[in-house]
Amino acid sequence: xxxxxCISNVPDTTAKISFTDNDTKFNKTGVQFIIGPYxxxxxxxxxxLKEQHGGTVTVLNVGESExxxxxxxxxAIGADDAIRVxxxxxxxxxxxxxxxxxxxxNSYDLILMGRESIDFNSGVVHGLVGEMLGIASxxxxxxxxxxxxxxxxxxEIDGGKEHLSAALPLVLGCQEPIAEWKIPNMRGIMTARxxxxxxxxxxxxxxxxxxxxYALPAPxxxxxxxxxxxxxxxxxxxxxxxxxx
Amino acid sequence: MSVLVFVEIDNGSIKKTSREAxxxxxxxxxxxxxxxVVLAIGEATEAELEQAGKWGATRVLHVxxxxxxxxxxxxxxxxxxxxxxxxxxxxxVLAKSGxxxxxxxxxxxxxxxxxxxxxxxxxxxxxxxxxxxxxYTGKAFATVEIKSAIKILGIRKNAxxxxxxxxxxxxxxxTPTLRESDFAAKVLEVEKASTELSLTDADIIxxxxxxxxxxxxxxxxxxxxxxxxxxxxxxxxxxxxxxxPHHEHIGQTGIKVAPNIYIACGISGAIQHLAGxxxxxxxxVINKDPEAPFFKAADYGIVGDVFDILPRLTRAVEEAx
Lengths: 245, 321
Ligand SMILES: Cc1cc2nc3c(=O)[nH]c(=O)nc-3n(C[C@H](O)[C@H](O)[C@H](O)COP(=O)(O)OP(=O)(O)OC[C@H]3O[C@@H](n4cnc5c(N)ncnc54)[C@H](O)[C@@H]3O)c2cc1C
Known about the structure:
The complex is a heterodimer.
Chain A: E1 2-6, E2 9-11, E3 19-20, E4 25-26, E5 33-35, H1 37-53, E6 56-63, H2 68-77, E7 81-86, H3 92-105, E8 110-114, H4 125-133, E9 137-147, E10 150-157, E11 160-167, E12 170-174, H5 186-192, E13 197-200, E14 209-215, E15 224-225, H6 233-240
Parallel strand pairs in A: 1-6, 1-8, 6-7, 7-13, 8-12, 9-12
Antiparallel strand pairs in A: 2-5, 3-4, 9-10, 10-11
Helix pairs in contact in A: 2-5, 3-4
Chain B: E1 2-7, E2 9-10, E3 13-14, H1 16-31, E4 35-41, H2 46-50, E5 59-63, H3 73-87, E6 89-95, H4 98-111, E7 114-119, E8 130-135, E9 140-146, E10 151-155, E11 171-173, E12 186-192, E13 204-208, H5 219-228, E14 231-234, H6 236-240, E15 261-265, H7 271-274, E16 282-287, E17 300-303, H8 306-320
Parallel strand pairs in B: 1-4, 1-6, 4-5, 5-11, 6-10, 7-10, 13-14, 13-15, 15-16, 16-17
Antiparallel strand pairs in B: 2-3, 8-9
Helix pairs in contact in B: 3-4, 5-8
The complex binds flavin-adenine dinucleotide.
């Protein structure tokens, strides 16, 4: 089984978000970058599936060389080889077109990625890639098993889940608890150094969106503390002061 | 020129987030001197669908194929693309949600449209087409210009304050061509708490963290939620520990919610949890630790024991009725 896992290179979940150059660039100073947490679940499940069924896991990122440490980490976790499409990931359509291009040259049985990236939170890349390749896509997938050519999986729906089965190939957007995040071990880190990380150039795609500027939310006003003895007051305050009840 | 609004039907009625999308689409259509047309897939009565007029739609296309009664993003995207052709729409509006994202994505690739998700206000259509969207899980905003001919906007909850009118919108049947390949997946089982209020639609959410100390202690929280007509949520460790079902998990790696009132009970307020609730209008925090970081993000705070405070709040709500 050939699995492609697409990972995003994103600021750590605790990173302080700020901008430079007149609010047109993300300020990377002091920010730690990580494999997108949802992508990390997809990667963990891909490695488990490879252990069960054999085959290969290729990890793919659309990004510049700053993504390399994340690709190396994915190799250390258990991916066999890595591909980086050397370009700035400008928007979902652009990224999806790059992924679809790579995928169309290799016949993957499964294309896994996170349900969304935690920078732009669009949650559309899996659907775009699926449609571009003409194969089915599902998200958010929280359980996945493979038997032969068939995938059995569960999707989260409003207030519950839905269990499905479908023939491969599939594109799936993943989330917990599909697998537990994996931490690379020493052996993994050593072997990752010798695995292939291919850098390829992007295909051209028309600009569909152009970023104009960023902004931060207005600072939160201070919190009104209600003494515990008078907790009941809250209900009246929500009605008359906050006017939300 | 029309704006096509894709709506979600749940148990025969238009979901609240979709009503907001209709209103958003209607206001945008007005800005562009066009009309807002609703596309509704699934079982709903004509009386229910006519209501789309209240939120500004001029007509409703209803697809009532039996095969589409069960949520199917692949087929819905196909129908949406056909409806875009039939109405000559250049803009598609839908509520941001799991289904909305999936439908938007597949339709975007079919129509070579750009999709911008998490839109928080009406676009600036004065010169070009510029939208403001939420990014970094609510920690920032970006203004982006959309260049493609067809544009798809996923609207964030509470983007606009909906104003209703007395109008009603005529409903027409719409019969799409269905593709066999969209139905290749077999639905084996659906587990759904049908009586439960959906977290993404709820106006009030009462949410519990590790401070609730165990799955058997949830009753006081459920009582308050019941009294308020609220949905219930939880922090990640709570669903990881199986104290509560996974679909209640709120935060960076769970559901993002934007209710009018979010009441956090025994949740410390880790940055990853806050990322899922920062769209809320009013945040109430109950925590016994006055230093809990959640208070910094709250509008109202009570330093106290949840097991003392929750029953008293429930009584106060009941008495205020
Ligand atoms: C990549 C990543 C993603 C994550 N995603 C999420 C996410 O999506 N959602 C999420 O929630 N977390 C997420 N987390 C975890 C997050 O960092 C916190 O660990 C988690 O939110 C803490 O949950 P909690 O507040 O319930 O528990 P705790 O941090 O243990 O807090 C319990 C709180 O209860 C209070 N308390 C205890 N007893 C009482 C009492 N009797 N009365 C009143 N108060 C009491 C305590 O003072 C404390 O503040 C993520 C972490 C990482 C690394």
